[in-house]
């Protein structure tokens, strides 16, 4: 029986693991499948102590080593099922392997939806971004393209307009955009193109040069953002346990402790409500771990 299982070895899960491991009192297991949003980011620039940036893969690698150094164990698996049994929880992995624990932290995050456009993945997190709060700074006064769909892409372009006056929104999926948003795009001088993107043209090291459209037109760019909408929030395990969800499938939690509506089940990172920044995910993970420690301490008496 583990004292705590953390599902998800991204930024939030790793920070929680490090915090729990440093209490030197618990059996902590992180179950991770090696995927996740942070694996796609080539360079975080907004993290304390890394002025030149650090990739998500590097941050995860360092975090795992740090957690292992304080006794945290890791298992490579995908948890498919979560059930409550008396005062504990039983998780079932993809292979059918069971895992049992007294407390549970879900840090399964979300997956950004984007089409399979040649050249896109190699630029993500380097010169094409997903989070305006994290990386809006990177497009200041640069020729920028928003690759997206419908109202989601239009909203991203409008949000970024204060960063640059040279911005074009390409509605790749040709999804309907509300008339009011079209008027706003026009009023703010944002270009609007409703054509399929057939290639993101880039040079070495993930530097975008522009995009090629279905009719052969080429649009040059120095930076880009994606916003296709319909991101997948991985809240299935929380739902199986009966945790309360928001309308958008993010998991509700106590703002102070990060505990969900299910006792002894916590949530951290992008899975929670409005915390889609790496630095916030770290704080979520540390906070949840502190309250897990409090809960485990009470179980001893």
Order of helices and strands: EHEHEEEEEHEHEHEHEEEEEEHEH
Segments where pLDDT lies below 50 for 5+ residues? none
Principal-axis shape? elongated
The count of helical stretches stands at: 8
Mean pLDDT: 96
Percent helix range:
25-40%
- Any idea what the radius of gyration is? 21 Å
Task: Tell how many strands the DSSP assignment holds.
Answer: 17
Strand content: 25-35%
Class from secondary-structure proportions: alpha/beta
For the sheet with most strands, the description reads: 7 strands, mixed
Separation, N- and C-terminal Cα atoms? 18 Å
Structure explained in plain terms:
It is built from 8 helices and 17 strands. The chain has 301 residues and is α/β, with parallel strands linked by helices. Strands 1, 2, 3, 4, 5, 6 and 17 form a 7-stranded mixed sheet that branches. It has a 5-stranded parallel sheet with strand order 8-15-9-10-11. It has a 3-stranded antiparallel sheet with strand order 12-13-14. Helix 1 runs parallel beside helix 8 and helix 5 runs parallel beside helix 6. The radius of gyration is 21 Å and the shape is elongated.
């Amino acid at each position: 029986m583990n004292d705590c299982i953390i599902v998800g070895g991204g930024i939030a899960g790793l920070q929680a693991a490090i915090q729990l491991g440093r209490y030197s009192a618990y059996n902590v297991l992180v179950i991770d499948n090696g995927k996740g949003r942070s694996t796609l980011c080539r360079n975080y620039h907004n993290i304390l102590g890394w002025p030149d940036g650090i990739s998500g893969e590097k941050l995860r690698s360092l975090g795992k080593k740090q957690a292992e150094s304080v006794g945290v164990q890791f298992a490579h698996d995908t948890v498919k099922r979560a059930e409550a049994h008396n005062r504990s929880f039983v998780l079932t992995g993809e292979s059918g392997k069971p895992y049992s624990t007294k407390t549970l932290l879900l840090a399964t995050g979300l997956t950004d939806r984007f089409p399979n456009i040649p050249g896109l993945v190699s630029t993500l997190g380097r010169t094409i971004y997903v989070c305006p709060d994290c990386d809006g700074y990177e497009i200041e006064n640069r020729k920028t393209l928003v690759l997206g769909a419908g109202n989601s892409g239009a909203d991203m372009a409008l949000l970024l307009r204060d960063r640059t006056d040279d911005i074009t929104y390409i509605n790749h999926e040709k999804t309907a955009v509300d008339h009011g948003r079209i008027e706003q795009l026009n009023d703010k001088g944002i270009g609007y193109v409703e054509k399929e993107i057939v290639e993101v043209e880039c040079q070495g090291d993930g530097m975008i040069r522009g995009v090629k459209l279905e009719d052969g037109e080429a649009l040059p760019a120095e930076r880009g953002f994606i916003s296709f909408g319909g991101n997948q929030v991985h809240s299935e395990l929380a739902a199986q346990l009966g945790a309360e969800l928001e309308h958008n499938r993010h998991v509700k939690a106590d703002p102070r402790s990060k505990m969900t509506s299910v006792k002894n089940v916590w949530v951290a990172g992008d899975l929670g409500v409005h915390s889609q920044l790496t630095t916030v995910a770290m704080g979520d993970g540390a906070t949840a771990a502190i309250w897990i420690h409090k809960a485990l301490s009470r179980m001893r008496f």
